[in-house]
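Standup notes, structure subgroup. Blocker cleared on the D-MYO-inositol-1-phosphate input:
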Amino acid sequence: MTDSDFKELKAIDQMVCHWLEELMHQAQELVQSHLDVQHKDGDTRNLVTNVDRENERWLDQKIRTFNPEAKIISEEGFGDHPLDMEGDVWFVDPIDGTMNFVHEHTDFAIMVALYRDGQPLLGWIADVMGNDIYHGGPAIGVQINQQQLPASPDLQLSQSILMLSGRRLVAGDYGYKTLAQKALAFRVIGSAGITFSYLLKGQVNGYFSKLMPWDVAAGRVLAESLGFIVTNLDGQALNMLSSNTVLIATDSTHHEIVTMLKG
Ligand code: IPD
Ligand code: CA
Ligand code: CA
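Run returned:
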């Protein structure tokens, strides 16, 4: 990586951090306000609010102004529908954990990621009520605000706290029950972004969920940069254009889970 490539990445990183600071402060005010809440796809547990839509419209517009050639994959319909990962592809989740945003007023995030020719380049997760931004990538390292984060320790499954999807656990999908029993403990947070923040801080060692591209894009960049392995259920690479059953874990836990699910 040349000096000018490094400087370009640092400049993009700082620019998006400023965007997210602005949205984070707005969302901190809006969380207590009257929200326009609607259900998506006739599912009473799948919520969207005016803030989700306004955040996405604003972020997609910022990205298009900065990077007009880029493609955007975002949740609420303001983005594009690219058929490949060539060039610059941005991912936007304008509120991740909308159920928490509406009902718990905490544990929700705003997420952005940038991939170039399919390679994870930069990721940002704003933990809105924590007032923290996790950001960086493989070339520039990972920071929480201004503080560099270290690589996570590698633990066995029996020593690991696993983050799971409540929906998959209840449905009993993908050997979930056995996994939950074999881990040291399991937790369900309801926001992929906040779940990733626990992984990045080394508080938990694995996360297993079915996720859309905008749910996983930022977390994948940051987690891989800290040595986590991010694959689908059978250990294969993710397809960033579709939903995946995503397994994120440190080396030993990842190996143990993939082997267990194959058996
Ligand atoms: C949801 C959250 C949740 C995950 C769901 C996502 P949304 O995101 O990240 O943790 O289990 O699959 O859809 O819809 O609130 O942005
Ligand atoms: Ca999401
Ligand atoms: Ca969302």
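Discussed briefly. Residues 3-30 form the longest helix (28 residues).
Next: hand off to the docking folks.
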